[in-house]
RNA sequence: GGUGCGGUGGCGGAGAGGCUACGCAGCGGAUUGCAAAUCCGUGUACACGAGUUCGAUUCUCGUCCGCACCUCCA
């Protein structure tokens, strides 16, 4: 299918026409979580962004293979294990499961492939051997390091030059490194640490190695799209490129590199280290699973390369809007996504514009089917309508029921003083009563 | 210091060289016993300075400010 998709490519810092290697089969890889803790809303942003892109790609091209990895071997995990006394596999399996549940609540489909780092140890080892053979890597003190200066165009993704990196080393350089910017491909493990036998002794892979190995195994040398958060541009993606290119005779690892902006809190990046994070899990616990859709909508209200500021107010506002649309499309059958929406999305995934178009469609009596189909392309309005969609709607309760019928009675007798008194009584309980054509409804304030 | 992304109405947030989205809130009105919901109406905002142009908020340069990466981080 013909598509005029344009995406911003971090490699060139330009918006470019998307040129698939094989238009009949698109390949995309996105960096996933390191599973040792709950994912916060910032971690959820790439999930939602690339899930939305995946939906568009499937719509436009038909076949897409989308991979998102799970890092299940990492120093942070080892640390967590030593702290809690739990086995590493217990920790990683637990948090991988929670991650999948949380992400499902955001209506992000499971990727086609979810490779785990520990399933690719052999592939990583052969990549490392290959790099040593090609004189791009060297062994030192139980480590294997990639020698950055052996690659001429290192730094192309993040616009850094090897000279600058050599000159600007600010951190203490480990003494086994030949040069400051060299990075670890393999590191030794103590007996207490998990490790695998290798030609360089018992050890474990460095962080960047897994993605290169997984991509090669699952897709080959070059994929269409590689995605992740902006904080991965350097050093993670830069180093992936270095490893893969040097091993593959200069072939591009990915033709298009896409990076989403941060989720911020009061203008600052949401992050573990700043402590200003909110986990998806706790939001779901607090507001119910259905709030996941509102979180998704919030994340889509800003363009993916722009920062989006997190606030619970924003989520509630999104929820309100979704409820309106659900009401509007109650008896509607989805038809086809509107051309306006597709056009917006094909322009570097302009989701804010797409949402604006949803508002327009909502105004048009004759385009409800398109509204629904378009929203679903964005991963919204996917649930069957039911009256409990509203967050905070109360369960039936004998006492409240009694008050309600008392009030209905008063209303029937035009005894509005009593009716309003009962409304005030609800108010004191933090509940707002709303008379609708279907009878009174109660909502938490 | 290097690299990148930004500064748009009360808030959120698109956008294009000239036609100045959209949502929320606000205000006015319809409707409602009153509210809620709904519907109608209502707002010329684009950091600053210079330049290019018939015309710039949109292009160029400079200034100021914010955020981020350069160390683990989506």
Give the tags.
single chain, 445 residues, alpha/beta, Rossmann fold, 3 domains, 4-stranded parallel beta sheet, 15 helices, 42% helix, RNA-binding
Secondary structure: elements and pairs:
Blueprint: E1 6-9, E2 14-17, E3 26-30, H1 41-61, E4 64-68, H2 75-84, H3 88-105, H4 121-133, E5 137-140, E6 143-146, H5 162-167, E7 183-188, E8 203-205, H6 209-219, E9 223-229, H7 233-247, E10 254-260, E11 263-265, E12 268-269, H8 280-287, H9 291-300, E13 308-309, H10 312-328, H11 339-346, H12 351-363, H13 368-377, H14 398-412, H15 416-428, E14 431-436, E15 439-444
Parallel strand pairs: 3-4, 3-9, 9-10, 11-13
Antiparallel strand pairs: 1-2, 5-6, 6-7, 7-8, 11-12, 14-15
This protein binds one RNA strand of 74 nucleotides through helix 1, helix 7, strand 12, strand 13 and helix 10.
Name given to the CATH architecture of the largest domain: 3-Layer(aba) Sandwich
Structural class: alpha/beta
- Tally of individual domains: 3
Percent of residues in helices: 40-55%
Helices, by number, come to 15
Low-confidence stretches are 387-394
Proportion of residues in β-strands: 15-25%
- CATH evolutionary superfamily of the largest domain: HUPs
Span of the ends, CA to CA: 48 Å
Write up this protein.
With about 450 residues, this protein is of the alpha/beta class. It folds into 3 domains: about 5-260, HUPs (Rossmann fold); about 265-390, no CATH class; about 400-445, no CATH class. Helix content is about 40%, strand content about 15%. The protein has a 4-stranded parallel sheet with strand order 4-3-9-10, covered by helices on one side. A 4-stranded antiparallel sheet has the order 5-6-7-8, with helices on one face. Helix 6 packs across helix 7 (about 235-245), helix 11 runs antiparallel to helix 12 and helix 12 (about 350-365) runs antiparallel to helix 13 (about 370-375). The model is unreliable at about 385-395 (pLDDT under 50). The protein binds one RNA strand of 74 nucleotides through helix 1, helix 7, strand 12, strand 13 and helix 10.
